[in-house]
Specification:
This protein is mainly alpha-helical. It contains 15 helices and no strands. α1 crosses α4, α3 packs antiparallel against α4 and α5 runs antiparallel to α6. The longest helix is centred in the N-terminal third of the chain and has 44 residues. The protein is globular, with a radius of gyration of 21 Å.
């Protein structure tokens, strides 16, 4: 006999309606915390990269400021991880998106480290820390005011609400949860299982859109529907970009082991900051920060040469590897998008007869697939980056050879070190 689905009673409609109330609350709070963290990091970024250097009469795009700022950021993050209560939680390198709720005492140090990394120019996005922070806060909040909501449901709805807020639409969360929901045992249609995540994601997306819109504003110039050559090119570019991303995954796993030989987070995070500074000097300001605004700037730039674009893609991938391996707290999706944009534009420079949006979307698809290992998320971001749904058929074909490249390759997840504290 099939057991009832956890969290749902006999009256499914009534239960879904009742649970929609905490689902909306979760989505709204998730978006508000994300907006606050992002706004704080923007204000600190303006202070570090505009106010201070200009007050000192220094060019913030100069090599010495880039190297010094990233090295100082690494040192500050290392000190916070080592000495603040909670030690900024477990290493982001050892965790996928989501996971169990952290104790509330970890939230202040994790938020401080995440904000400093985002503002200091580290090549990581906000997704891992903000999901962990939201999960900790909302698990404690709902345990106080909605005690009958299962903790496992709170975790899922928090991830859905945060993803909806990150991308300004519940579609991304729906795609992420489709695979999970399909694997859940119990009665009920697929949309019964997706109902509450969609409520939470929709609430998060609505709040974030009202406050400031999506965190992925980049889009390629409009170019119409793809042709036959564009489809063939996309089916070649996507697996090549996936292989390029997998090179970064393999380098990350090696780099993570090497950094941990230094034992102390103060040492390996400071070294990571110095290496990021050198990479920033090599690649320039475009290769700094999480990569969302920088992707938009690159897409609407002056049409750089193939060699310049290839260097940007390689430097950003190396920066992502170092930042993820050296103990900084952050996600990998946003910098992976920049890598894909640079790779796609480089491919377009070699193949001028292929539409830029076809090359870029296929490359973003391949790189995000290799880094995040989620086909639905990769497809969603690849479509979003073009701003044109007509490329979806082309991308559904392009993802097939790309998936063959990544399906048995290692994931970009390191062995858990228990929180990056010295032994």
């Amino acid at each position: 006999m099939t057991e009832p689905e956890p969290g749902l009673g006999q009256n499914r409609i009534r239960t879904l309606a009742v649970l929609s109330v905490p689902a909306v609350l979760i989505g709204v709070v998730s978006a508000l915390i994300l907006f606050a963290l992002d706004e704080l990091s923007r204000q600190l970024q303006d202070l570090l990269w505009d106010v201070l250097p200009h007050a000192a009469g220094i060019d913030p795009d100069g090599g010495w400021w880039i190297f010094g700022m990233l090295t100082a950021t690494g040192l500050a993050v290392g000190l916070m991880v080592r000495y603040l209560p909670g030690h900024a939680g477990p290493d982001s390198a050892a965790a996928e998106l989501g996971g169990s709720a952290l104790p509330l005492k970890v939230v202040p140090s994790l938020a401080a480290v995440a904000v400093l990394g985002l503002a200091g120019g580290v090549s990581l996005g906000p997704e891992n820390p903000i999901i962990a922070i939201n999960t900790a806060v909302l698990t404690a909040l709902l345990a106080r005011f909605f005690r009958r909501v299962p903790a496992r449901l709170v975790l899922g709805l928090t991830m859905a609400g945060t993803v909806g807020a990150l991308f300004g639409t519940p579609v991304a969360a729906a795609l992420l949860f489709t695979g999970m929901a399909g694997a859940m045992a119990g009665p009920g249609a697929l949309f019964d299982k997706l109902f509450l995540p969609l409520v939470s994601a929709g609430a998060g997306a609505a709040v974030m859109t009202t406050l400031g819109g999506t965190m992925l504003p980049a889009s390629t110039p409009e170019a119409g529907s793809p042709g036959g050559w564009d489809v063939l090119a996309a089916m070649a570019i996507a697996p090549l970009a996936a292989a390029f991303g997998l090179a970064g995954v393999l380098a990350f796993r090696w780099a993570h082991r090497q950094f941990r030989r230094l034992r102390s987070p103060v040492l390996f995070t400071t070294l990571g900051g110095a290496l990021l500074g050198l990479l920033g000097v090599l690649g320039g300001p475009l290769t700094l920060f999480k990569g969302a605004e920088e992707s938009e700037e690159l897409l609407h730039g002056q049409g750089e040469s193939f060699s310049t674009l290839a260097v940007l893609a390689a430097v950003k991938l190396a920066a992502l590897v170092v930042a993820a391996a050296a103990g900084f707290r952050g996600g990998r999706i946003f910098p992976a998008v920049f890598v894909g944009v640079a790779f796609g534009l480089a491919a377009g420079a070699l193949l001028p007869d292929i539409r830029a949006d076809a090359a870029v979307s296929a490359a973003v698809l391949g790189v995000v697939l290799a880094i995040a290992r989620d086909g639905w998320l990769a497809l969603f971001i690849a479509v979003v980056i073009t701003g044109d749904v007509t490329v979806s058929a082309m991308l559904c074909l392009a993802i097939l050879p790309a998936w063959l490249v990544v399906t048995h390759a290692p994931h970009m997840v390191a062995e858990d070190d228990g929180g990056a504290r010295p032994a």
